[in-house]
Amino acid sequence: MPKGSPELTEARREEIVCACEKLYQTMSFKEITIKEIGNATSFTRTSIYNYFQTKEEIFLALLKREYELWIASLKEKMAQTKTMTKDEFADMMAHSLEARAQLLKIMSMNHYDMETGSRPEHLAAFKVVYGEAIRTVTACLNQYFPDMAVSEKQDFIYTFFPFMFGIYPYTFVTDKQRAAMEEADVNYVFMTIYEITYNCVKKLLGS
Q1: C-alpha to C-alpha distance for 92 and 64, rounded to whole angstroms
Q2: pLDDT exceeds cutoff 60 at 1
Q3: Is 44 in the same domain as 80?
Q4: What is the pLDDT of residues 135-174, one digit of tens each?
Q5: For labelling, which of 70, 83, 123, 187 has a CA lying 20 to 30 Å from the CA of 129?
């Protein structure tokens, strides 16, 4: 365990996660190493191992933080707006994910690697936040659609959360991928995060 106050420990963990986040803006998951992350922090590379043993654990912490930010935005909206129509709810959910493109990118491209490369305690801490995300979306459904059947809410949750894994790769297409689809004569229709999420939520709500 690292020495120092809990505040210092948390500050250093956050600095490591922020360094990883910055690198991820210009580098791929495979290109990023503990060494690269260490070079972007204010302390020695070996000190990182006092907080994270693998880069997968660092990415998992980044994904956890992204989920926390998404949860906070949903709870804030629930507190501000007591009622919503189906259209307004779809708009709110679409905007909430539009603001969290990094959440969608990490979960769709590197989720399996992060979970298999992280220690059980780190994975458990992430699952706590993931569970809170499910409970928060369920709370949204309870607040805005009180007449919705329990089975319908379950169907929404177990369709929407798997759907989230496919949003990023469908809405962010490289030139190479676009050229390949054109050569293969794939009728690809570009959609933004907002558009694809809005349409999905409207359909799940039966509208």
Answers
A1: 21
A2: no
A3: no
A4: 999 999 999 999 999 999 999 999 999 999 999 999 998 8
A5: 83
Residues 31 and 64 in one domain: no
Exposure on the CB side of residue 28, measured as CA atoms within 13 A: 3
Long-range contacts of 171-177 (CB under 8 A, 24+ apart): 171/196, 172/101, 172/105
174: CATH: 1.10.357.10
What is the percent of the chain with per-residue pLDDT over 90, rounded to a whole number? 82
Question: In this structure, what CATH number is given to the domain that contains residue 47?
Answer: 1.10.10
Number of separate domains in the chain: 2
47: containing domain: 1-52
